[in-house]
């Protein structure tokens, strides 16, 4: 796909009409989310926002998984979560907090696809003709109908707007897995380019899945998000060394106290999550809401893994995988220490872990990113 861009083959931006359309697909946390009142159209950005973030999140974005529909649904029945479609879908994945303050200080952490959008425009791509974005509710399953239908609709728009050209997709992180799910059922794609995709899902399970499961207000909400369960490590992937969650645990037997280092690999970590989250809850509108590790979501996520394990690249589609190396990337995680052991596994929810590191881009281990 990059060969079709003037930045890589020397063509001038005046030749933009000859370019195949590009669709940018974001990953985990890479789309603006807004709440919309069902009674009228007022919308409020709840992700990403720096000012009043925790208040807005607690009031409007906390949700529970509905096993009958497969969706995570807002606790506030009067609102729904929407992704803005402005600027041909690019607004939602450009600057994730487009407030005046953030733009004034140019906070790089929320300038998501911004630089790539600018680069592609400089290469001759035109918004609404050859350049589009797809933001989505990243809390939902990567194979749920709403996300699949939204991606198909966006591809159809790009296909028609460009005069019937097949579409090139550039996806980031979890967006690559979403596209994999889609492509096994459709042939509307010409080129598929992955950027820092966690192909066997231990992505930063350490810093994201695990940390999201076990810590703080934002993370309480993600316990009910199918996509987070779908990012748990693939037990069928043949790692050179299996990633592990380690816990220094204090145990008592016959009045004697022992400290053991317990290890949980991809096959055993569910038992750890269940035990650590067995008393987990949040308070919403004055009521206690239980948030244990959700086995219904885990069952759904297992189905997603089976689909991804069988996914094949359709004939005629060019595929490129770009990933970073030479950065320390979290791999194993350890809670407690020999001198400060964990007595009850629920304590890991309030314990800062230590990490071991491998080669990668800082978030995705290279071994996972380069796997086919």
UniProtKB/TrEMBL annotation:
<dbReference type="Pfam" id="PF02450">
    <property type="entry name" value="LCAT"/>
</dbReference>
<dbReference type="GO" id="GO:0008374">
    <property type="term" value="F:O-acyltransferase activity"/>
</dbReference>
<dbReference type="GO" id="GO:0006629">
    <property type="term" value="P:lipid metabolic process"/>
</dbReference>
<dbReference type="InterPro" id="IPR003386">
    <property type="entry name" value="LACT/PDAT_acylTrfase"/>
</dbReference>
<protein>
    <recommendedName>
        <fullName>Phospholipase A(1)</fullName>
    </recommendedName>
</protein>
<dbReference type="InterPro" id="IPR029058">
    <property type="entry name" value="AB_hydrolase_fold"/>
</dbReference>
